[in-house]
Amino acid sequence: MNTLRRIDRKTSDEDALRVLSESLYGTLATVNEDGSPYCVPMSHAVWNGALYFHCARAGQKLDNLRRDARAFYTCVRNVRVLGPEFAMEYSSCAVEGRVEEVTDEAERAGAMRALCEKYCPDDVDSDAYARTMRAMPAVVMLRMPLDSVCGKANRGKLD
């Protein structure tokens, strides 16, 4: 990952991971066959030292990742326009690395549970959760190791 130009806005790794964990969604950037970028919003969960997403068994994102596993994921929290200053308050996180398909069934189930716990913690032990888990054969689970993470914030606002 390139060095931040505004080093005064760099956050600690711990704060960057907190932003990543608490963000409701982010954008996954992959590379199309012709070299052009392809970006798509994704829901995610941080679990076992990695970032996890899920997707359907077919589509542009998956085609791109199977051909070239390099990816970049960004998320932003706590955005507030600072009116007449023509500035924004925010906290963000970027992850760069290679995305891997998860084939181990126990890891796939654990990652899906982490996603469900993040977005619907009160419903994890419900019939709806059981239906979700029964549908796992139709889901591709993706893992992005957290080897290269960078956080940035304006005004130091993290909460």
Task: Briefly characterize the structure.
Helices cover 26% and strands 38% of the residues.
Written description of the protein model:
With about 160 residues, the chain is α+β, with helices and mostly antiparallel strands. The chain has one domain (about 5-155): Pnp Oxidase, Chain A (Roll), CATH 2.30.110.10. The protein contains four helices and nine strands, in the order αββββαβββααββ. The chain has helices at about 15-20, 60-65, 105-120, 125-135, and strands at about 25-30, 35-40, 45, 50-55, 70-80, 90-100, 100, 140-145, 150-155. A five-stranded antiparallel beta sheet has the order 2-1-5-6-9. The two termini are about 25 Å apart. The model has no long low-confidence stretch (mean pLDDT about 90).
CATH architecture: Roll
Helical/strand content category: alpha+beta
Percentage of residues in DSSP E strands: 35-45%
CATH topology: Pnp Oxidase, Chain A
The count of helical stretches stands at 4
What topology does this entry show?
Elements: H1 13-22, E1 26-31, E2 37-42, E3 45-47, E4 50-56, H2 60-67, E5 70-81, E6 88-98, E7 100-102, H3 105-119, H4 127-134, E8 139-145, E9 149-154
Antiparallel strand pairs: 1-2, 1-5, 3-4, 4-8, 5-6, 6-9, 7-8
Give descriptors for this structure:
single chain; 159 residues; alpha+beta; 4-stranded antiparallel beta sheet; 9 strands
